[in-house]
Design goal:
Length: about 800
């Protein structure tokens, strides 16, 4: 009878939340999640005041734990949400107003050092949106004072307090901690805040900016060199220009970043002209004018750079061209001006169509007279082109050219489309505005790519098609059908794969010519036809009219060589290890269920489905799919059946936007060099050329890097994906198959594959001395520390080097 009385009393008072909390903590420490859920779901109905008792449980739970991606409090909240869905009577509105307000204040007090999922669930359960904004704002200020900057911005974002707090005070600490993505989330959708963020970052790009003021405001954040790297001008410029494009903000609001980018471009052009001596005078002059036009400071800098490169005469000519004031000229330039002829006349272009004998001996030449090259810039000329090009069973070489922007502009529109058929080449001039936007022009392009009875030949066509989308946005709205397209890049990769599989030295990297400086299409032309292409005009100003004769020759050769390569390969298919009919290697999107050029949103929706392949995938690699997986180099498969490779045979250089990916790949044994935050993108190109590495990059730098290393040596990934997903994509594209022995065979921090055994205590002491571990961490052999270390994922310790210790 006594026992019965106790049970009745227990039911009347409900389950003690402290008892339930202790049970859950014990199961959490044992990592018995299944039992944890059962006990929680059985215990919640027994609580007399579920909403109040839940807070009691949470107040007794520990916060973040190293090595754990969640907390016991977060898990309790998730289970409570599962239970409360079936309990409509358990709501805050069912309580008296003062009692509900008291619970809200208690809940708000729990939002300190915690995970975003915990914040969101607590906000929903206790309806914290309904609290007085002044109370919420006061809590945000409290978090900032405690140094919980990340938690402050997460809470502000979730409670929609963007207009209630000071943007700089809440965002600057996160920027210095290299958490710009959280800041972007905070300002997105608030036009005034988006512009404030861009203006703030742009002000840090000013040549006279110093970090002393920020250092005084946030001294704690400057104890690590890592934070100092975030506010380097090159890094800031990259972020500013990306945000301007993302938020569609007027470029006039980022004048400092634009000037910095143009100045870097100017230095690059000086190096190409006077250092490498790989750029012609005409190309150099065109690009320099594009960079410095209408900017006196850059014009003055150009003159100074020319003087530094011992080109005083050129400096004086440039200073006259831009009418630079005498008081801004370097010493000796004005005096040199006086010795120049009164009238500086451009020398007449006496270049002939047929190049020199030396050029003909060294490079591939298109076997066409000048009369067989037709400039198409009117509807009438286009009609004559249509009659010749769209004949049944025609074979057409397709290539496109556009103006290099060197990162100063995100939009790259096609300037010239080359169409080569037997005995004729047609150059469609898209810089003629009336012709470019004429309905007949767009209709012709649609007809060309959609006709299955016309074979279109290209090389790495996805980059061309991406620029077509920028030129004609309507191609995104109404997808471009792709029928009868053969990308010779895929054929080239098959040839290289056959060579690699027959080599005694094992597989070789795709598109690397042994003993040859040629790359991409030029390498293929050399291998098949005996001579490479002359790529001198590749980086020309393709928007300037009229085109120079050397530019026209280059454009003709680039398209016509596709016909001759296709003919040579078709007649000797077995010699190159290819099928008798190369059309069977066609990589048409339509062959794999009728895809086409799609908008970004449509592309994301198709990630879950098999089949359709988007043509604009040149700027990012599409998700892995069994049938239509895009290749890593230019958007096509590396080969039909690429041989599996061990991780050690893949050598890459990761851009500074993909450092997380680099650490993941190192975990798997891949040889990875990673750029520092302060490194320019060109460093990646130099490393790739010097050490035979493939560049891994994302976003806008892809086009400029690709042009520096040639087709097939640069892989672009989706920077919105997690590092782990990017790593999986890279492994699948290169058919890298790691084994258990490869895991952690290379150090994430230094890329070395040589390890030394260090006692655990010594290792932890060294890490602590270097600042990688907090002072409060016990360096003893506690089982919790050991378990946490085992569970830690690569991306969770971006600054903590992986070491082997016992």
């Amino acid at each position: 009878m006594l026992q019965t009385g106790m049970d009745t009393s227990s039911e009347a008072t409900g389950l003690d939340p402290a008892v339930l909390r202790d049970q859950l903590l014990e199961l959490w420490n044992w990592k018995d999640l299944q039992s944890f859920r059962c006990v929680a779901l059985q215990g919640f109905p027994k609580l007399s005041q579920p909403l109040e008792d839940l807070l009691t449980i949470l107040e007794g739970c520990s916060g973040k734990q190293k090595g754990r991606s969640s907390t016991v409090g977060s898990q309790v909240l998730m289970e409570f949400l599962t239970w409360i869905k079936e309990q409509p009577q358990v709501t805050l509105s069912s309580l008296p107003e003062q009692e509900a307000l008291s619970l809200q204040h208690r809940a708000l007090g729990l939002l300190t050092d915690t995970y975003p999922s915990f914040v969101e669930n607590l906000i929903n359960i206790y309806q914290l949106h309904s609290l007085d904004p002044s109370v919420l704002r006061l809590h945000i200020v409290k978090l900032q004072g405690l140094g919980y900057y990340k938690e402050a911005i997460v809470l502000s974002t979730k409670l929609k307090l963007q207009n209630e707090v000071n943007m700089e005070e809440i965002c600057v600490p996160l920027i210095l901690q290299d958490k710009l993505s959280m800041v972007e989330m905070f300002v997105t959708g608030h036009r005034d805040l988006e512009e404030q963020l861009v203006t703030l970052l742009d002000s840090w790009c000013h040549p006279g900016f110093t970090v002393d003021e920020i250092r005084r405001r946030y001294p704690r954040l400057f104890q690590s060199k890592h934070y100092m790297g975030v506010i380097q001008p090159k890094v800031l410029t990259k972020h500013v220009l990306r945000l301007v494009e993302k938020f569609n903000i007027d470029q006039g609001m980022c004048s400092n970043a634009l000037r910095k980018r143009r100045l870097d471009t100017l230095r690059f052009l000086m190096y190409k002209r006077f250092g490498e001596k790989s750029m012609t005078e005409e190309n150099w002059s065109d690009h320099v004018h594009f960079v410095v036009a209408e900017d006196l400071e850059l014009q003055v800098k150009l003159v100074e750079l020319l003087v530094d490169h011992h080109s005083l005469e050129k400096a004086s000519q440039v200073s006259l061209r831009y009418k630079i004031p005498r008081n801004r000229l370097p010493i000796g330039v004005w005096e040199k001006q006086q010795s120049l002829p009164q009238s500086l006349q451009k020398k007449l272009d006496s270049e002939e169509w047929t190049p020199s004998e030396l050029h003909r001996q060294k490079f591939y030449q298109a076997p066409l007279a000048k009369e067989k090259v037709h400039i198409v810039n009117t509807p009438e000329a286009l009609q004559r082109c249509r009659v010749v090009v769209l004949k049944d069973d025609a074979v057409v070489g397709v290539d496109m050219e556009w103006q290099p922007t060197f990162g100063c502009s995100s939009a790259q529109q096609v300037a010239l489309i080359q169409l080569a058929v037997q005995d004729h080449v047609f150059l469609l001039d898209l810089c003629a505005s009336d012709f470019c936007h004429h309905p007949d022009t767009i209709s012709f392009v649609r007809s060309l790519f959609s006709q299955n009875n016309v074979l279109k030949l290209g090389y790495g066509m996805t980059g061309d098609l991406k620029c077509l989308l920028t030129t004609w946005p309507q191609l995104s709205e109404e997808p471009l059908k792709m029928e009868g397209v053969l990308d010779l890049l895929r054929v080239h990769q098959k040839i290289q794969s056959n060579k690699a599989s027959g080599s005694q030295n094992g597989p070789k990297e795709v598109l690397v010519g042994e003993g040859s400086a040629e790359k991409g299409l030029s390498l293929l032309v050399q291998q098949v036809l005996g001579k490479p292409l002359d790529k001198t005009e590749q980086m020309s100003n393709w928007e300037k009219r009229p085109l120079r004769l050397s530019q026209i020759r280059y454009a003709v050769a680039d398209a016509y060589c596709l016909l001759e390569v296709y003919t040579a390969l078709s007649s000797n298919a077995a010699q190159f290890g290819l099928p008798a009919d190369l059309r069977n290697m066609s990589s048409n999107p339509s062959d794999k269920s009728g895809g086409g050029v799609q908008k970004e949103k449509q592309s994301k929706q198709k990630k879950q489905s098999q089949g359709k392949e988007e043509c604009q995938g040149a700027h990012r690699v599409s998700p892995p799919r069994p049938d239509t997986e895009k290749g890593p180099l230019c958007g096509e498969n590396p080969s039909e059946n690429p041989p599996p490779l061990p991780p050690q045979q893949l050598r890459v250089v990761c851009d500074n936007m993909l450092q997380g990916l680099g650490r993941y790949l190192r975990c798997l044994g891949v040889d990875v060099v990673m750029l520092e935050n302060t490194d320019d993108h060109r460093v990646a190109a130099k490393l790739a050329q010097a050490e035979g590495r493939v560049i891994l990059t994302c976003g806008q730098p892809f086009q400029s890097l690709r042009s520096q290393v040639g087709e097939g040596r640069c892989l672009s990934l989706d920077c919105s994906e997690k590092a782990r997903d990017q790593a999986v994509r890279v492994l699948r594209h290169f058919n890298i198959q790691p084994t258990p022995s490869d895991i952690f065979s290379r150090c994430q921090a230094c890329n070395s594959d040589q390890y030394v055994a260090v006692p655990r205590e010594d290792m932890l002491r060294m890490l602590k001395k270097k600042g990688f571990l907090d002072d409060q961490i016990d360096i003893g052999n506690s089982p919790e520390t050991s378990n946490h270390q085992e569970e830690e994922e690569p991306h969770a310790s971006s600054e903590l080097p992986r070491m082997f210790y016992r």
